[in-house]
Amino acid sequence: MLLSLPEDNRLPRGRALHPIRVPGSKSVTNRALLLAALAPGTSRFQGGLEAEDTRWMRRALTDLGLGLQEQDGVWVIEGGRRPRASGPLWLGASGTTLRFLLPWLALKAEGPVRLEGDPRLFERPLGPLLAPLEALGAAWEPDRQGAWLRPAPQLPERLDLTVDARLSSQFLTGLALTAAALPGGGTLRWTEVASPSYLVLTTQWLQRFGCEARLEPGQWNIPGGALGARTLDLPGDWSGAAAFLAAAAATGRSLRLEPLDPADAQGDRAMVAILEAAGCRAQWLDSQALELSGPLARGLDADLTDCPDLGPVLAALAALAPAPSELRGLHTLPLKECDRLDASAELVRWLGGAAEVIGDHTLRVTPGPPPGPRPAFDPRNDHRMAFAAAVGGLRCGGEVRDPHCVAKTFPQFWDVWRGMLGC
């Protein structure tokens, strides 16, 4: 797909970009779907994300015997049943689906469950999540196509676990969601956790389903037996908004985005503060509409420990900034759908800049002159790398291979992107 834009790839400052509506949040949608499956009764959602990752979660829940249907844009979920697989569960490349479902299936499934998906899904870390489940009696039997999961012979009353969460907060989230469905709930402990803001997000959604979970430093207390069905509007996706916010920063134009919630616990809402620190201006027009105006006045200086998924888009924006940038807290990026730290450095160079990777956690970017003709950028089948390439193309043009990889979380991305630019 060509990233070239009108007016010889130069977008004049001062004219507003066309307003956009961001899609629903993947992180919230998959949490809410599983909570609705765990909670007895009928839950109803509006605003859920329609994309590959959430499709695999919905399909898995259906194949596990949960009632799930769509009625005029509303998802209706009949929850509270024990899962029983009618056949293999295909999970695509969705890490949230696999890691959220694993504890529930390992402790409550009626019979063995076959799990399959893209090869990369099973290459990503699972050991720290499997270890406590195997200690409770579950068995994990991997092979070339996926794995068999054989549930524990006895359902525990509650969970009391210490978890190694250095590689992913999703290990803790999956266990916390299942603990909320046990009679005695559970207590989870850790010494270090990746992307801790996602634990805050999970706590927020546990509470919205009636579980008054308490998150403390190094410990999570989850009451059991309190989950109840809910009717909810799911929020827009701060992760999906990131590339569009970067577009306003790169072009010096203003952009209105909605629906977004300023009080949402999604860690990627930090994008606004990062851009404001670099000279952009942001204001809330109402309770769901945000306006951001560029341009960047300086380079980016950000610790992304709480929001590492912003790394690729910010790396691309740093290549267009008026001064060098430093992005820190990126140690989980090599473990994502691709090695996003290496891919982000490659993207910066593709955009004419210099990229220095320091250890496994820091990327320093020095902008350079716009590059000339070059091969298409390969996003490595990673949606966030494709989003980042779109940002870089605002000034540098070029072409991106495999543009359809955005379907993982934002199938309409390119249409919305072109609409924002008035193309």
Helix % is 25-40%
Give a count of the beta strands, DSSP E runs of length 2 or more.
20
* Number of discrete domains: 2
| Rg measurement, Å | 21 Å
Integer average pLDDT: 94
Please give the largest β-sheet. Answer: 4 strands, mixed
The share of residues in extended strands comes to: 15-25%
* Silhouette: globular
The CATH topology of the largest domain is UDP-n-acetylglucosamine1-carboxyvinyl-transferase, Chain
CATH superfamily of the largest domain: Enolpyruvate transferase domain
Structural class: alpha/beta
SS field, number of helical segments: 13
Q: Give the termini distance in whole angstroms.
A: 14 Å
- CATH C-level class of the largest domain: Alpha Beta
Which spans have pLDDT < 50 for at least 5 consecutive residues?
5-10
What strand order characterises the main sheet?
1-14-16-15
**CATH architecture descriptor of the largest domain:** Alpha-beta prism
